[in-house]
Amino acid sequence: MELRQLEYFVTVAEERNFTRAAEKLHVSQPGVSAQIRRLERELGQELLDRSGRSVRTTEAGEAVLPYARAALAAVAGAGLAVDELTGLLRGHVSVGTVTSHKVDLPGLLAEFHRDHPAVGITLSEAPSDRLLEGVRTGEFDAVIASVGDSTPAGVGIEVIEDQPIVVAVAHDHELAVHRVVSIDTLRGRPLISLPRGTGLRARLDEACAAAGFTPQIAFEASDPGQLAELAAHGLGAAILPGVFAAARSEQLKSIGIDRPALRGRLVLAWRADGVGSPAGRALVARARAAVGQAGPRRG
To answer: N- or C-end of the chain: fewer Cβ atoms within 10 A?
Structure first.
């Protein structure tokens, strides 16, 4: 029994005509007939009723048809898996990212696309908690997100940046006389922060809750650069990754946070159990290599 014979049989059964089946298969009609006759002799039963104006499957043909289709589908699936694994000729990957970071993600995706042009790529922006949940559920193959000191359950990570979280204020702000403040110093003060769902906001909320109060958030923005601008205009104390405050030292005073010290890690994250498409696994490997070569940036 040959796969070609099964393919010819399935096509004739679907087309109900030898000539149309031969045209669809791009072979001669006598060739199709001959191969199906060989299959029937091997099985010892006629599979097609040729007595009418249209070809019909016999009772034996109806019994064989689903198995023939399944065999052809299995072969096609095996070929697809090998193609994706070795050449990534087709497939799709989904990448998620927080809004602001210094990773050359467009460059990374461009290199991946050049090597695997038939793999579709979707890029989405979302808060860190949404991205990490998407990795766990398989919605995203890889994400760039912010996490705390511990690794979230169900994901693997490669650290991109490990930065202190600081208080950034205008130079004439009352806190500007301090080099370091405790988390309790922020009690009751108007703060400028990223919205809920972000890693930085989670670190702030956790630390304030441990100290027995809820932070008073006067302004929220999704971009750390915007938080810095608001603080520079005297609208409150911005809670920022240290690198963003340092970049605006002419406008802002950066104050460390102690008791407890807060740090935020920007990470590349992927599903820890390795489940996913070959294309997705290849993208993760490419991204991990790029992040690993650069090494984590620490502040």
So the answer is: N
Q: 89-299 — its CATH code?
A: 3.40.190.290
Q: What are phi and psi of 143, to 5 degrees?
A: -140, 160
**How many C-beta atoms lie closer than 10 Å to residue 164's C-beta?**
18
- Would you kindly state where each structural domain of the chain is located, as residue ranges? 3-87, 89-299
CATH of 3-87, one of 1.10.10.10, 3.40.50.300, 2.40.40.10, 3.90.1640.10: 1.10.10.10
Confidence (pLDDT) at 117 = 87
CA distance 127 to 195: 9
Q: How far lies 212's CA from each of 199, 257, 263, in Å?
A: 20, 16, 20
For the chain, list residues with pLDDT below 50. Answer: none
Query: How many Å apart are CA 60 and CA 50, to the nearest integer?
Result: 14
Could you tell me the two tokens for 200?
């930085």
Whole-number pLDDT of residue 169: 96
Write out the two tokens for 13.
Answer: 């059964």
